[in-house]
Amino acid sequence: MSTPTLAVIGAGPKAIAVAAKAAELRTLGVPAPDVVVVERAGVAANWQAIGGWTDGQHRLGTSPEKDVGFPYRSSLVPRRNAELDERMMRHSWQSFLIDIGHFAEWVDRGRPAPTHRRWSQYLNWVADNIGMTVVSGEVTEIGVDDDQTAWMLQTDDDTVRADAVMVTGPGQAEKSILPGNPRVLSIAQFWHRAAAQELITAERVAVIGGGETAATMLNELFRHRVSTITVISPQVTLFTRGEGFFENTLYSDPTHWSGLTLSERRDAMNRTDRGVFSARVQEALLADDRIRHLRGRVAHAVARDERIRLTLLSDTGAERSETVHGFDLVIDGSGANALWFVPLLAPDALDMLELGLGRPLTGESLQESIGDDLAVRGVIPKLFLPGLAGLNQGPGFPNLSCLGLLSDRVLAADLRASSAITDRSIRSTDERLREEETSTDEHQSVR
């Protein structure tokens, strides 16, 4: 029987964590899928200036010890999981620092958060050590084969056939509310200017977004020549992310997550992840009197009189208010989009997904469908969406908080569509036989 192939879109931490765990399983003689990663820019590109999400010089918001093997509690190989974790330690952050001769210095400096660029070097080091297979190219279409038993990923130069697909990454950083207007910068445009050391000079600057993407931009803007910086977000204020032991445990260990009600899960995620700034960034904001906050969602943007006028909608009790504000420069930092891949779905793939979901494909329907293996329930071949797994499976899966658990969940899944279809057929046959037996028994009892 041939080895199944798992294709991963995006060569970031999640792809590398799964590829590293699969490689170590094979060294133990345990069957594991062939992991093929399709990447448009380069390994760990989103942690470098080339990816458009950073200039590479800002600090990682998560502890670097939450690396590709964290939390080192593998559950894939009974009686050999400790051995598997030991092998994964060869790909740890500490092992990387030892390899490049910086471990003692890092410890003596108090274990500081590394820059994004250094984190990307770590990820590349792991990918090189395991010989990760990378197909260079941007995925232009996600389809299925004629039998709907395999995924077909189309790039400009290649087609990758896979038994299962995992989608990763935050999407494209090039989008903005007014594309092409020099007074409106996308995330990528902002960071490209920062990487080129181009200082922004403006009186009134607006940053759209209240999450960590916008927070990192604010951290960068502090050194630019701007008079006022207005943060626009739907929240009533700029909340600080909870970073204590109990909050962090929710991300590292989702054991009790499923026991929470849906409203409790949403509340926990809102308090610790969505639309919140890290304590480090908030401390910097307090020290800078140029920062302002406006509550609302941007409903409309127009260029007029050498300014960008933003129309904001906000709910005030039972009423909805609408206000207009003018800025010299607007930075659209509204952040990542976990549904970025949906426009790439071919009609047959979209039909297959909606049939499995039993309803139209939306962000809500996908989130609520994510199973224990981080794949969409009821869909064969498997489609893993860890970026949407937070609500059902735990808030650590969409980010860097439990990459080792993520790789366990994905690699424990049955990736063979044929076997899943066979199992489904067997179950259907068994159910039909049971129904026939029940019907016979009832008929005999009537007689």
TrEMBL record:
GO MF annotations, alphabetized = L-lysine 6-monooxygenase (NADPH) activity
Catalytic activity, as annotated: L-lysine + NADPH + O2 = N(6)-hydroxy-L-lysine + NADP(+) + H2O
The UniProt keywords, alphabetically, are: FAD, Flavoprotein, Monooxygenase, NADP, Oxidoreductase
Q: Does the keyword Oxidoreductase apply?
A: yes
Specify where the region named Disordered lies, as residue ranges.
428-447
Q: What is its EC number?
A: 1.14.13.59
Q: In which pathway does it act?
A: Siderophore biosynthesis; mycobactin biosynthesis
By its UniProt entry, which SUPFAM superfamilies does this protein fall under? FAD/NAD(P)-binding domain, NAD(P)-binding Rossmann-fold domains
Enzyme class name: oxidoreductase
Pfam families per record: Lys_Orn_oxgnase
The cofactor required is: FAD
- Family assignment? Belongs to the lysine N(6)-hydroxylase/L-ornithine N(5)-oxygenase family.
Looking up InterPro entries in the UniProt record yields: FAD/NAD-bd_sf, Lys/Orn_oxygenase, NAD(P)-bd_dom_sf
Protein name, as recorded: L-lysine N6-monooxygenase MbtG
Give the source's domain of life in one word. Bacteria
